[in-house]
Design a protein that fits this description.
The complex is a heterodimer of chains A (about 200) and B (about 250). With about 200 residues, chain A is an alpha/beta fold. Chain A has one domain: Class I glutamine amidotransferase (GATase) domain (Rossmann fold, 3-Layer(aba) Sandwich), CATH 3.40.50.880. In chain A, strand 5 and strand 6 form a beta hairpin. Chain B is about 35% helix and about 25% strand. An 8-stranded parallel beta barrel of chain B has the order 1-3-4-5-6-9-10-11, surrounded by 7 helices. Chain B starts with a strand and ends in an 8-residue tail after the last helix. Classes of the chains: A alpha/beta (about 200), B alpha/beta (about 250). At the A-B interface, helix 1, strand 8, strand 10 and helix 6 of A face helix 2 of B.
């Protein structure tokens, strides 16, 4: 069973639909017991960091996530859900993240030329740094993933598995032990994204 | 770097696709899920669903269509039509839209763009604009292109993106339906003042028109079309292969 954390951020139709399509049982939940019983956890998210962090905090689930992530249960953060995994974000101020992965989330616009567009919206090629990562079991170098974001992870070299180029190297997939994060939306990245979700669900 | 995108647009009324698609292998020519799947499988980078429903009662049907598509097609979905308030944003986002396109609703109430961007994020708000030349100026039109608002379209694009619109769809009334190519001059004018992705609409008739579009106006990120895709005049997978052969980066799938 895969628990998709429900904390009122973003639409989950594609995520639940993707897992269903892959034949993977999933439940959208904010129930601590259900999360503890699940084989793996997905933390979705769109919108602004501080708002999402507050909403997640309001569910009272952060201690449960800390515990489960600490116990080695596979956890995948998607888009803003990935950003929440880091130590800090500088989106409209300075906010603490969950701190499962070393690094911080910074505005893209400060690091790319002015004539480049922000948000970084669209399909971008994945460049693989660590091919042996279990999340990449079915992924090939050059697969296209769908990104939509204005902030990106920095100082996360140790956990960087794959990235895409947008003047800077935008971390696409990060991993620290049992905790994974994708800046792109695998549930919106067609066949390539489905393959990655399948791989996550096979992580033990 | 990010690829250029090819986006088909489907008009929905009463839960069905208006002017259904007539392709081999699709029996139910106006089933939105079947058509969305068809486009997904042929390489569409995104889908636009446009609600042309006139009555309030039919909104429920539209929501059902969206949910069904979002659960079955794993590429981004943009929804437009009948978006006049934050409640309308909420309604379609809760039914599976990733982005919401606002057109006449923003003309009636320009502050909706900023409010929606603040609430849902810039990336969620697409400003769609119908533009036509009047006395040598690009003017913004309302009500499906029937009414000149008297607003300068270039200024409009600048202001609303400053408010937080994360993408712009520029539909040229001059070239729409003519099938003689996109409105390069108009797109250049608007790309010159905005720093968000621009989606070109109106005028595609042949594959070469997309090449000319992307080669001539580098600021354009995507080409949107309806009838040429629906009637099979241009097949999306052929179009993408052709554009790749012309050195334009496309998502291969």
């Amino acid at each position: 069973m895969t628990a998709i954390i429900n904390y009122g951020v973003g639409n989950l139709f594609s995520l639940t639909g993707s897992l269903k399509h892959l034949g993977i049982e999933a439940v959208v939940t904010a129930d601590a017991d259900e999360i503890r019983k699940a084989d793996r956890i997905i933390l979705p998210g769109v919108g602004a960091f501080a708002d999402a962090k507050r909403k997640l905090s309001d569910t009272g689930l952060i201690p449960v996530l800390n515990e489960e992530a600490g116990n080695g249960k596979p956890l995948l953060g998607i888009c803003l859900g990935m950003q929440l995994l880091f130590e800090k974000s500088y989106e409209y101020g300075e906010h603490d993240g969950l701190g499962y992965i070393k690094g911080e989330v910074c505005p893209l616009c400060e690091d790319i030329p002015e004539n480049m567009k922000v948000p970084h919206i669209g399909w971008n090629k994945l460049i693989i740094k660590d091919k042996s990562n279990p999340m990449l079991k079915y992924t090939s170098e050059g697969d296209y993933m769908y990104y939509v974001h204005s902030y990106y992870a920095k100082k996360c070299e140790e956990s960087l598995i794959a990235y895409s180029e947008y003047y800077v190297n935008v971390p696409g997939l990060v991993n620290n032990k049992n905790v994974f994060g994708t800046q792109f939306h695998p549930e919106k990245s067609g066949e390539a994204g489905l393959k990655m979700l399948k791989a996550f669900c096979e992580v033990r | 770097m990010i690829t250029k995108r090819i986006i088909p647009c489907l008009d929905i009324r009463n839960g069905r696709v208006v002017k259904g698609v007539n392709f081999d292998g699709i029996r139910d020519v106006d089933d939105p899920v079947a058509l969305a799947k068809y486009y997904n499988d042929s390489g569409a980078d995104e889908l636009v669903f446009y609600d042309i429903t006139a009555s309030f009662e039919e909104r429920g049907l539209f929501a059902d269509v969206l949910k069904n598509v979002a659960e079955n097609i794993f590429i981004p979905l943009t929804v437009g039509g009948n978006i006049n308030s934050l409640d309308d944003f909420d309604r379609v986002l809760k039914s599976g839209a990733d982005k919401v396109s606002v057109n006449t609703g923003a003309i009636k109430n320009p502050s909706i763009v900023g409010e929606a961007a603040k609430k849902y994020g810039d990336q969620c708000v697409v400003l769609s604009m119908d533009v036509k030349r009047v006395d040598g100026r690009f003017m913004l039109f309302a009500k499906g292109g029937r009414e000149n608002t008297g607003i300068d379209a270039v200024e409009w694009a600048k202001k609303r993106t400053a408010d937080g619109a994360g993408e712009i769809v520029v539909n040229s009334i001059n070239t729409d339906g003519v099938k003689n190519g996109f409105d390069i001059e108009m797109l250049e004018a608007i790309c010159g003042v905005v720093s968000v992705p621009v989606i070109a609409s109106g005028g595609a008739g042949r594959m070469e028109h997309f090449k000319t579009l992307f080669d001539t106006v580098p600021g354009v990120d995507a080409g949107l079309a309806a009838s040429i895709f629906h009637f099979g005049e241009v097949k999306i997978n052929d179009l993408k292969k052709y554009l790749i052969s012309q050195n334009i980066e496309m998502r291969v799938f």
